[in-house]
User: Fold these one by one.
Assistant:
Number 1:
Amino acid sequence: MRLINAFLVTTGIVFTVSAFATLQPVSAIMPDTTQQITNINKDNKTTLAARDINTTVEQPVKISGITQYLAIDNVIELWQVFNQHKDLQSKLTKQPNKVYVVYSDFSNNYEAASITIGYNVKALSGFQNVIELNQKNSTQLLKNKKHTAQALSDAWQNIDYRHTINQVVEVHTLSSKHTIVSSELFVNYIGG
Amino acid sequence: MFEAFSTVLSENDIWWLESLIDNWFLVIALSLFVLELLRYAFKKELTKNLVGDSIANFVTLTLFILIVFFVAAAYASVFFYVYEHFRLIDLPLTPWTIICCIVLADLAYYWEHRFLHKNGFAWATHTVHHSSPHFNISVAYRHGPMDWFFPLFFHLPLALFGFHPFMIFLAEVMVQVYQTLLHTETVKKLPRPIEAIFNTPSHHRVHHATNKQYLDKNYGGIFIIWDRLFGTFAKETTKVKYGVFPRINSVNPITIFFSGYRKLMRQIINAPNWSYRIKLLVKPPLWAWQQEQNNK
């Protein structure tokens, strides 16, 4: 084949493979799970996410970290405690790629909750007070990508407060420098 | 099944995988090399020259790693700069993307490799790899001083196409690891479908040959289909003679490491004019050889 033709064919291959990479079906599932997804259209017009939600059936993810009951608006205080918690960080067996924030046991007005910030127990050498993520029938409110703090906050507005909330889970994907590169938000309703 | 390929990974996952391969593959390769040496010993083909040549190969690897230590940060920064500022699309960090990246990195490797054989300045570093008269796993680690430089230009477009730099580095490592395993005389021919699609020890022996019919053939990394497609494929039919002309005839790692650029410098100094000097840098090494033959 002549060189010019080889270059043209190469260009074609590059664009074709790039198109395959671009058009891939990105899963909207909770990370660290065994995936078995069924798409369900739920007749619930009060939430954006509930219009086309993914229901996951998978092995549970277990989280261990630090837990406090406090006002949801004050979660930043727990982050500061978490970041300086040498005992927890020293138990990491490998650099974690995700950090989880689990909100449960909400107050009646949903302004306070029991909040846990932690890692998957698979990344820890020892752990106590394990929280199991209730992923069955979890509804994804934010897809896994880079979000502003405001977008994350706004996504809470999409929770259907007519149902009793079991858990709200933020999953933050970390870079090698331990900074958050993307986030997801899930909600799980009791009996949902 | 598709969901497994679409699970979003973190940068850390990809970095971890690359480090794992980097850390453990050398151990695996060294183990295979020991087996190769035992095979040569069993066949009474283990010579002093082969042992000396193999030791020299690993010394050139050490020299190469030393150079990489100083340039790695700059090399990676170029990829990150292009990715952060000029990427055309955002590709998710998924196994699916990794597979696409490996295919394109392998295609990039094909063109880089072809360039190394067709450009005088590039050949001066790549000739080191080809200069061994032997063919075993240790030859895969026989590096020239500028071997780190040329992959940059051929793999950088991947960052432009939205592949994360860590993913590109992982793909480069995968291609290199696959290539390393091809440097053996122990494996003869693999089943026909594999020989048709993938690069194999047989195909790569042809690439290292000095036999006339094998010159400048089989540039592929993982896939041999690129060579078949672009007309640079040759099948191993007769016994391969390894090395380059003129022979280095040395197992001194320093002599070997700088042999290509020393020869190029000598050619440039002795060149009749500046046009000839530029052609020595730009044209294929075969051109320089033909000029020398004409002047004899």
Number 2:
Amino acid sequence: MRLEHWLYKLPLRLRSLFHRGEVENELDEELRDHLERDIAQRVRLGASPAEAERAARIALGGVEQQKEEVRDTRGLRPLENFVADIRYSLRALRRNPGFTAAAVLVLGLGLGASTAVFSVLDAVLFSELPYPDAARLVRVYQKNGPGNFWTLSVVDVQAIAEQQRSFDAFGVARWSSASLSGAGAPEQVAIGGVTAGFFTALGVTAAEGRLLEPRDDTPGAPAVVVLSHALAERALGGAAKAVGRSVTLDGVSHTVVGVLPPKRNELAGITADAWPALQLTRPPRRGPFGLRGYGRLKPGVSIEAAERDLAGISERIFPIWASSFQDKTARLFPVSLRTTIIGNADRSVGFFAGAVALVLLIAIANVGTLMLVRTSEREQELSVRAALGAARPRLARLVATECLTLALLAGVAGLGIAAAGISLVGSFAPNLPRQAEVGLDARAVGFLGLAALFSALLVSLSPLAQVLRRGTAASLVPDARRAGTSRSSNRTRAAFVIVEFALALPLLLGSGLLLKSFLQLQQVDPGFNPEGVGSVDIGLPVARYPNDTTRLRFWEQLVERVQRVPGVVATGITTSLPPDNGGDVNNFDLVAHPVADGTNQPVAPWVWVTNGFFDALGVELVDGRLFTIADSGSAPPVIVVSRAWAARYFPGEPVLGQQLIEGGCTSCPRTTVVGVVGDVHYLGLETRAEGVYAPLAQGGIRSGALLVRTNGAPGRVFPAVRAQFSALDPELPFAQEPLSDRLDASLADPRRYTAVLSAFAGVAVLLAALGIFGLMSYVVRQRRREIGVRIALGAQPKAVTRMIVVRGMRYALAGTAIGLVLAALQMRWLRSMLFQVAPTDPVALAGGAGVLLLAGFLACWLPGRRAARIKALEAISTE
Amino acid sequence: MSKPTDLVQGTLDLLILKILAFEPQNGWAVGQRLKQLSSDVLQVSEGSLYPALHKLEQEGWISAEWRPSENNRRAKFYSLTRLGRRQLARETESWRRLSHAISAVVRLREV
């Protein structure tokens, strides 16, 4: 019944809405027809035509009134009024292009920036990971204390595969790089060696061919690989053509069995181009670690249950491998995959969100001020409307609609700004996880709409109050208007300005602190001179370099050949590159000061090097000796330590000759400290410069970097280095990187944070200054006559300017003071981003407040000067 | 001139529906019929006629159609819809109850 009812009603409503003209014409025609018939009848009954017409019209009761009443029956009145109000607002805004442009731009900027940050927030933090039923995915770690997590070994993985009862699927990945040949020039690509369970656990499917199957994991099975869509396109001419072809990874030929869908080159936080099947053989000892475990929980199994299941496995396998692994406290431990991927991204995203929210609020306050000034200027117009009978609610609706129209226009502008902002996210935050998922989607547009409505609400509050509060006919008289306009609306305007200053100060302080911290970071001595030094990453394929002897021979021959190149000052091999490629980190136990039972051993960056490395990087020997030819693989293990390491572990004691147990291996021979060298930062400039060097000959390492110091012209020397390199092994990829680039890159994150926050702070200061400028200009215009009288009575121009500036600066000072309090509350979460700067740094505090007050002063001085130039006679006689 | 409020609330709707139940009519004719049928007792203002007609149309109880009329021009004719017929039955029933109730009260003899 109801449905049938609406089947009749709906088409009529739609017709009156969208074919309004037609409907109106029909109404016209119908009423005219009625009149004609009525007149004809009256004439028939004996009336004169003129009389008949008059009588008919009276009987009908006014054609226009009839129409209005009929229109009311359509039930579209509120909508029609709304549309009319919007039209009226647009007309009014068009008449005031300066005001409109300023308000739309300011609010659009705030809305656009916050929408861009919202889309990042939404994609990175709020939405599910892009896997089916992603809440059930976990990553499995080894853990021996809060905060100390590491990867799995083959022993762990095989034990989990055999004993676990919590997962539907479990798989592992080893993230590394390999030289890819057989498709164009050899290149170094990122690879994720994975077991079949990895894809099954994540629930991804192949775009072409198939993914891995359990039989691919068994040792001895034919080598197969799954490629990323991008690599298949780039190297093999398309996804469909790639299946069945073969590619060579680190010298081993792999058959391509499948290709992942486009945009799937990142899985579970691993970005790779090729995903070869990982074949795990039964190991002789518990380590080494380096495998990432991923599982999909069975439906209904909680992560706590999985934790107990895995802890049981840890306890059962510990006794079996106790000879090679003594840490009894280590447990296999599941962590939700989401947590591991998002990591501390919420901190940096939260930081942007806070900054952008402040900018949006300032923008709203600014537009609020503009709107108030505008409403005050329309006082007379509004009074006329009120006098002509417009009800106060109607006037209020007019003002509210104008704010809404303004916010909608700003929303449209914000859409463009948000789109531009989102395209910049990649360059501002290259390390942000899940970046591919960030976009201007329906949710972001919805957010923009809500934010626009919210700002319309805030902006319209005070003009509404102003309209509703005013007496009805009071202000048609010009003088009454000037005296009255309301002290209270001036107070509201001042409040807006104070809010703007209060909100701008924390932004300014934050950016000041970040800037100071950044400058300090730049002052840190990295421990080396990067000028003229370049590095080449090298990974030796197991297929062609099967054992320690062949690998060591390669490293030694490479150094020998490169040393002979003219222009090379020094060269060496290293497994870590400063300032922020930690390479390996090793735990150790000092024989002289062993750690207590059950506590964690200390760790330090562990760098395997050839002697030439120290010269190439420019690290000086402080005490003892460097390595010699006698420190071979069969000789007792020796290390050289950095000055900071010596100072931390042997303060005031001789460090040379001290011994330690490396990597928890109690059955291995003790390692002896033979030398002390200068400090180099391996884990970032902001961390301490402790480091331990071991001779390359005692490491048997597979991958490292060739470090070359040239006589100042790397561009001329490196081609010759490359020739020597390729002569030694033509299949290895060669890519040279200047060390100065690495140093720059390590400062990139702090530089970006500083740049973004400074930009926001700049916008905030500009808006605050604009706000106070607008307010004081208005005050000057409002008090034009009074100022004219003062000047006529002999007031000095300077005194007039001072009067205006003093008044304006009162607001600026009040805002800045409140801002300091706000800043004090909010600064503690900046602390983690600061380097050797306290959040209460007096220079930053004074600087921030100073910049803000200076901007405020300039913004007050301009209208103040204009006030001083008012021509007394003109001002008094006008109006 | 009597105002629509003088009629019992909703009575005008009932009358219009009843008149249109006989045959489709144009607005003017509906007004004339009203006067005739009520022997001029119910002086319905033409001013309230059209809003009422349009309201009934919007409710879906009557539908309108443009037809050529006797003077060779087109005129808007209203006719009862299926929904309208049901509505008429409902309103007739409630009117009957109301008038019975009122008559009963009015017939009470004072002692």
